[in-house]
Specification:
It is built from 17 helices and 21 strands. It has 486 residues and is of the alpha+beta class. It has 3 domains: 129 residues, Schlafen, AAA domain (Methyltransferase, Cobalt-precorrin-4 Transmethylase, Domain 2), CATH 3.30.950; 163 residues, Heat Shock Protein 90 (2-Layer Sandwich); 70 residues, Winged helix-like DNA-binding domain superfamily/Winged helix DNA-binding domain (Arc Repressor Mutant, subunit A, Orthogonal Bundle). Strands 12-11-15-16-19-18-17 form a 7-stranded mixed sheet, with helices on one face. Strand 13 and strand 14 form a beta hairpin. The protein is globular. The two termini are 47 Å apart.
Length: 486
């Protein structure tokens, strides 16, 4: 969530989806009752360091890190929250005061705090003790969030073993002290909410979300025969396609395959965010890819599609809508469609927080494509339309066309690296990591050496400020547009 949205929240009154709590030196005593009630109801936002009337009181700067660490630790403590649900506190400075924002999504599971079920109304949190009312909350979640369907026949042996080390590496790079890193694989799945007991049928086991995130390909197809993500390029052949990636694997690998497809067919631009040089393509399309994967209604047979046209990228996925029509980025309340999958992607660093996709695409799209009109259309089929300027496509087609023949003998990794340097003269190796969707630096350095040996690229300038350029010899071998009669 941006600082601007936090400021908007401060102008609102407390309600079913908004709570202010003073927290000068410690966590409020009833904080986890509110977290539990929001998880059980519609989700919402909690601002710590703010009085009930919205007056900013602030948090003692010396206690901020302690409060944040206690919050993360206790949200993973079943005595405070059962089942655990890790939250991501964000600190903001407003008028010289520090406050902490917590975004609490609606959960697909029934939660308790200190063994008590809490629900939420416009008047605040309240205990739920009557069995029939607890059953109503559970049944509402059970029918609405199909990712939580229990498959009693699903076994740990049905998961791809290599995914666990991949997941741990991603989590470690995002948060080296993450509590999931200190437990075994089966415990991690339980902590992630991917194992549960169905209180209505008394069945217990791994869920649909677990199968989608970790399942072997044949297991996923057995559970959901219609599951697929269809990535297409339709710039020339509009009836069929120019290129296609048919994705039938788990969601963790599916995200990487989709981002590789983006890297192959859409060029990049660098952008200075503060003093950091970032990849605009990655900033925008990691959100688009994650949104397509995380918020899909998987029990619906409508295929998820990702189509690159000359002037736009369009995606479609089946949806369990919370409204109808275009989403206004300045005035929308994000709802999780698959809370457990969304939470898992947050741990991997592939999703920032609920609603970040809409906000980040709107933030960066003007710099990337020259226009600021992406569309996010809510309905039974959720649709995204991301505009791509003619200049961006011309750059991509020019690079691909001009280098045809010159790239013979280069694998895809070397081709994409060469194109990145050609599009960004003077780029440093460390900046190529971001541009090439977190390709390991050691791999990039090895590939750079190969291209230098082939005399395709060269380094210019000092070690501190220099970077890599396409060689003059390579440029002379590229046919000009005049030579091609254009």
């Amino acid at each position: 969530m941006s600082l601007e949205r936090v400021k908007k929240l401060l102008k609102q009154k407390e309600g079913i989806r908004l709570e202010f709590k003073e927290s000068r030196t410690d966590l409020p005593g009833n904080l986890f009752e509110t977290i539990c009630s929001m998880l059980n109801r519609e989700g919402g936002d909690i601002l710590l360091g703010v009085a009930d009337d919205g007056t900013i009181k602030g948090i003692d700067p010396a206690r901020i890190d302690i409060i944040k660490n206690n919050l993360v630790t206790l949200s993973n403590n079943p005595n405070k929250l059962e089942p655990p649900f890790i939250l991501f506190p964000k600190v903001y400075e407003i008028k010289g005061n520090s406050i902490i924002h917590l975004q609490v999504p609606e959960s697909s599971q029934l939660h308790r705090s200190a063994s008590v079920v809490y629900d939420r109304s416009s008047d605040g949190d309240f205990k739920v003790t009557q069995p029939q009312l607890i059953a109503e909350i559970f049944n509402r979640k059970r029918t609405h969030y199909t990712e939580g369907i229990v498959y009693a026949g699903l076994r740990f042996e049905d998961f791809k073993p290599e995914l666990f080390s991949k997941v741990r590496n991603l989590i470690r790079s995002n948060n080296p002290s993450h509590p999931w890193l200190s437990v075994d694989d089966e415990t991690m799945l339980k902590m992630a909410g991917l194992w549960k007991r169905d209180l209505q049928t008394n069945q217990e086991g791994y869920t649909l979300a677990a199968a989608l995130l970790f399942g072997k390909d044949e297991v996923i197809q057995s559970v959901l025969p219609h599951y697929k993500i269809d990535a297409l390029v339709r710039k020339v052949n509009m009836l069929r396609y120019d290129d296609r990636e048919y994705i039938l694997t788990n969601l963790i690998d599916a995200y990487d395959l989709l981002m590789n497809f983006v890297s192959k067919h859409l060029p990049d631009k660098f952008y200075m965010e503060g003093d950091q040089r970032v990849s605009l393509r990655s900033k925008i399309f990691r959100e688009v890819a994650a949104n397509l994967i995380v918020h899909r209604e998987y029990t619906n047979a409508h295929p998820a599609t990702f189509i690159i046209y000359k002037d736009r990228v369009e995606t479609e996925n089946a949806n369990n809508p919370h409204g109808e029509g275009p989403i206004d980025p300045d005035n929308f309340a994000p709802f999780p469609k698959n809370p457990a999958i969304a939470k898992f992607f947050m741990q991997l660093g592939r999703v920032e927080e609920l609603g970040s996709g809409v906000l980040n695409v709107n933030r960066f799209i003007k710099e990337y494509s020259g226009t600021d009109s992406p569309q996010f259309i809510e309905g039974p089929i959720f649709k995204m339309v991301i505009p791509i300027s003619e200049g961006v496509n011309a750059l991509n087609e020019g690079i691909n066309g001009e280098n045809e023949g010159l790239n013979e003998g280069l694998n895809e990794g070397l081709k994409s690296l060469l194109e990145a340097i050609q599009s960004n003269p003077g780029i440093k190796a460390k900046d190529l990591v971001t541009l090439l969707d977190n390709r390991p630096l050691k791999t990039i350095e090895r590939q750079i050496k190969e291209l230098v040996i082939k005399e395709h690229i060269e380094r210019r300038g000092s070690k501190k400020i220099g970077g890599y350029f396409v060689t003059e010899g390579f440029k002379q071998r590229i046919p000009t547009r005049a030579n091609k009669g254009s």
